Amino acid sequence: MGEKRGMARMLLECSLSDKLCVVQEQQYEVIIVPTLLVGLFLILLAVILWLFIREQRSQQQRPGIREPAGLHEVQDFVGRIQFYQYLGKHKNLVQLEGCCTDRLPLYMVLEDVAQGDLLSFLWTCRRDVMTMDGLLYDLTEKQVYHIGKQVLLGLEFLQDKHLFHGDVAARNILIQSDLTAKLCGLGLAYEVHALGAISSARTIPLKWLAPERLLLRPAGIRGD
Fold first, then answer.
1. Helix, strand, coil proportions of the chain in percent (round to 5)?
2. Fewest C-beta in 10 Å: which of 7, 31, 41, 123?
3. What does pTM read for this prediction?
């Protein structure tokens, strides 16, 4: 036991002045790294790791950032802009306010409708008396019929252009502060205009389907 303890002591006895250490009667060079440098290295490593994790999380939280659009997507986007231009102006359709098609990035600006979609608006009215423009507002039955009539006017406008909406639902109707109703969600109408029919990949919640559609009959103006 005495010899082993002596050997252990021998392994730890190093001369820092000449950076030599005697272990089992042999000399080894000892590299002395100051504690401060070790601390700085660990801090730098921690910062790099933190930046890496933050970048990974940032990429996960940005689902809207995609690869550049392909030719088909660009053509489809431009086609939708041209479709809004073809429709023209109507007070019960969401209006195209502006667009850019001659240089990147392509974009279109649609009309802002303050109160959002009709579905959320009706649920808000049911929960409590709501306010619009700072005034207490309580939706009456007569005003509900007034909103429905405006939706019909928008559908008639589409019918005059030999189009149909195909997905008339409260979520696709927007409401302004003066209770003006505006149809939106014209994706199916665009497909009818561009392709002559609705894509087979299109699915609509059963809750909002017309009886004819539930019977698997073709979509059309009567369904609206």
1. 45, 15, 40
2. 31
3. 0.58
